[in-house]
């Protein structure tokens, strides 16, 4: 391990990380995997708002425009140069293939030019590792609930880079359901933060939306039925000329989502005898989910940890942390690394 972790800097190891899986272009510099020296994020939310969602071709072009700029800013803010960097980590899946290719191509070119190791990172793994940055004391094993626009997973994190997927969504990811419901209500994009804000002023028991638990022993999720129930309610109210109280719809929908997520997370943690649950992904910023999971976890003597809001969103710092631990475990990519848009957690196609 000491040979593997030989560093240009002697006492510490510097990672340059790149993230471009969707609509954030990000670069970060980390020291020894967990200390963030810089984390620059260029968001495209304002660009995609008018389309009501991310347009892949537009996202790719914006990544091309932004990537050199964010890398330069990350190095400058960290107070280092490319000559100081020990290895480069980059997201190579899952995500939008065109967006991923911008980051992967840039990372490969830099690794070749600098003659330093390249480490491909699974984007979902990056979300898990955001908690290592936020909570320096956190060590495996623990249960992780990953909730984002594209993913919903319950994962037993056995060790660094060692994952047992207990459950995943069978249809819509939870963040996708939030966005689709918000679009149907005409609330704008991204929908998750808007619904969370409205829900705080609504009655969560005003409308009875279904809770989908699937088979008794299953840790999988399904949100398409709930999403359809909300859309049917909205259409019915409009056809009848009845009032739609957005706050109550938001609160009732969010409560139905949160109840299932919390129930399955607590159940999985108890089954695996784990005393820590961590949240990861963009929907980990949802206040209703945080509050409910904290309350129920406390009843069971389970600790809840989650990243700060900035680390919930797509960012390169989490990718850098994952790259560091992948490197420690000997997972180094070659220059044939390619973007894999449907990459699964635990798969390593380096």
From TrEMBL:
Record EC number: 2.3.1.234
Query: Which PROSITE patterns does this one have?
Result: GLYCOPROTEASE
Provide the protein's localization. Cytoplasm
Q: Which reaction does it catalyse?
A: L-threonylcarbamoyladenylate + adenosine(37) in tRNA = N(6)-L-threonylcarbamoyladenosine(37) in tRNA + AMP + H(+)
The record's listing under InterPro entries reads:
Gcp-like_dom (IPR000905), KAE1/TsaD (IPR017861), Peptidase_M22_CS (IPR017860), TsaD (IPR022450)
Keyword tRNA processing annotated: yes
Judged by the first EC level, this protein's enzyme class is: transferase
Co-factor note (free text): Binds 1 Fe(2+) ion per subunit.
The record lists Fe cation as bound by: 123, 127, 314
**Tagged with keyword Cytoplasm:** yes
Q: What terms describe the molecular function in GO for this protein?
A: tRNA N(6)-L-threonylcarbamoyladenine synthase activity
Binding positions for substrate per the UniProt entry: 146-150, 179, 192, 196, 286
Q: Which is an annotated Pfam family here?
A: TsaD
Which keywords has UniProt assigned to this entry? Acyltransferase, Cytoplasm, Iron, Metal-binding, Transferase, tRNA processing
Gcp-like domain location:
35-320
Known cofactor(s): Fe(2+)
Which family would the database say this protein is a member of?
A: Belongs to the KAE1 / TsaD family.
Q: What does this protein do?
A: Required for the formation of a threonylcarbamoyl group on adenosine at position 37 (t(6)A37) in tRNAs that read codons beginning with adenine. Is involved in the transfer of the threonylcarbamoyl moiety of threonylcarbamoyl-AMP (TC-AMP) to the N6 group of A37, together with TsaE and TsaB. TsaD likely plays a direct catalytic role in this reaction.
Designated name of the protein: tRNA N6-adenosine threonylcarbamoyltransferase
To which species is this protein native?
Answer: Crassaminicella indica
Designated gene of the protein = tsaD
